[in-house]
Automatic annotation (TrEMBL):
SUPFAM superfamilies: P-loop containing nucleoside triphosphate hydrolases (SSF52540). GO terms for molecular function: ATP binding; ATP hydrolysis activity. GO terms for biological process: DNA synthesis involved in DNA repair; double-strand break repair. It comes from the Bacteria. InterPro entries: ATPase_AAA_core, P-loop_NTPase, RecF-like. This is ATPase.
Length: 381
């Protein structure tokens, strides 16, 4: 079952006071530093972390819940919480997953709940399913208590209470009763996030990797050589890859030897065509472009790909070829792109007709130009 993201609603997370909008097959967000573009990207990562079982850990890494909460004013009786909500669609079926995290509750100095004082606490989780105009709640969690819908549609307690740091989405396993939950979890785990692919001397991109048939690039890019070898030697489907390399580096050639135990790759350049430069010798920009090619042109793209500032360390001449790879990938996968580069955003618009969303700050909160409170954009009519 393949899912696409229909809409998101993020509330109370860093600069995202409350923002809700529909998501297309190709979404491009462009804006200056400090407008909160990365918070939009990071909100999606946290939803995937809920499926992985690392939601509380990821918030703790950000400095804890107090650091991640919206710091502006909120209604007097509204609790301090992070609210992340995503709508998914598969064929005619729709799912909505929501998670809320809040601060630990205390009474008379005692901690209420089954967690530690400083940890982010999962307060609410719900999963709803709708089809043919009918909606049912598959999962409902309030604090440690979880109820699930049985085959008759009635909700029953699941059983074991969850710890404050655990997510029901990652923890509950019951193939007979939780097929919808399992399907959503699998869909979220298939997402790929590519941000800050390391190109330093110790980067995994610069080293050979085990020769295993690899259809999709890992988020850290460590299996890039195997992705290239799979395209060239197993799928025999490397024409687009080689064209994208030649477009970015005219006259250069990507060299992918038939692997034995380890897979590797290199490049030749027109000024010295007989010399193969191994991955360890390539410039940061060249290696980063190749990693993005692996992410966007691999044999099997994940259903959802998020890119955060992929233009970093790339020469300006590489932005138009990068735009071409992004647009090609959007025909096979849903793409979410956050960028500083107006040049990249404009090139994508020229190739696809998809206008970028401009990210702005409005009274301290992240917003998108033209976004209406209904969740659609002025001009969509």
């Amino acid at each position: 079952m393949s899912f696409s993201v229909r809409d998101i609603w993020f509330k109370g997370y860093r600069s995202l006071r409350s923002i809700h909008f529909e998501v297309g097959d190709l979404s491009v967000f462009v804006g200056a530093n400090g407008t909160g573009k990365t918070n939009l990207y990071r909100g999606l990562q946290l939803i995937q972390a809920a499926a992985q079982g690392s939601f509380a850990y990821e918030l703790a890494r950000e400095g804890g819940l107090a650091a991640a909460l919206w710091a502006g004013l909120r209604p007097k009786n509204e609790p301090a919480r992070i609210h992340l909500d995503v709508g998914l669609i598969s064929d005619s079926a729709r799912y909505r997953y929501r998670i809320e995290a809040g601060l630990v509750q205390q009474s008379g100095g005692a901690i209420l709940g089954n967690g530690f004082l400083g940890e982010p606490q999962v307060k609410v989780e719900t999963l709803k399913f709708s089809h043919g105009g009918r909606e049912r709640t598959v999962l409902e969690r309030k604090g440690p208590a979880v109820s699930i819908a049985g085959p008759d549609g009635k909700r029953r307690p699941f059983g074991v209470p969850l710890l404050a740091s655990e997510t029901a989405l990652a923890t509950l396993h019951d193939a007979d009763r939780l097929a919808d939950l399992a399907a959503v979890r699998r869909a979220l785990l298939e997402w790929r996030f590519y941000h800050g692919l390391r190109t330093d001397r110790d980067s995994a991109l610069r080293r050979p990797c085990y020769a295993l048939a690899t259809p999709t690039l890992a988020s850290d890019g460590h299996d890039l050589a195997a992705v290239f070898a799979t395209l060239v030697h197993i799928r025999a489907d490397s024409e687009t890859l080689f064209e994208s390399v030649d477009e970015a580096f005219p006259g250069a050639r990507l060299v992918v030897p038939m692997p034995d135990r380890m897979a590797s790759f290199g490049m030749t350049f027109p000024d010295n065509p007989k010399r193969v430069y191994e991955a360890s010798e390539l410039s940061d920009g060249t290696l980063r472009y190749l990693a993005l090619a692996g992410a966007l042109l691999s044999a099997r793209l994940p259903p959802f790909i998020a890119l955060n500032e992929p233009e970093a360390s790339l020469h300006p001449d590489l932005l138009v070829p990068l735009a071409g790879m992004i647009v090609r990938a959007s025909r096979r996968a849903q793409i979410w792109l956050v960028t500083h580069s107006q040049v990249l955003a404009d090139a994508i618009q020229d190739l696809s007709g998809v206008a970028p969303h401009r990210v702005i700050k409005r009274d301290g909160e992240t917003w998108l130009e033209g976004l209406r409170l209904s969740g659609d954009f002025a001009g969509d009519d």
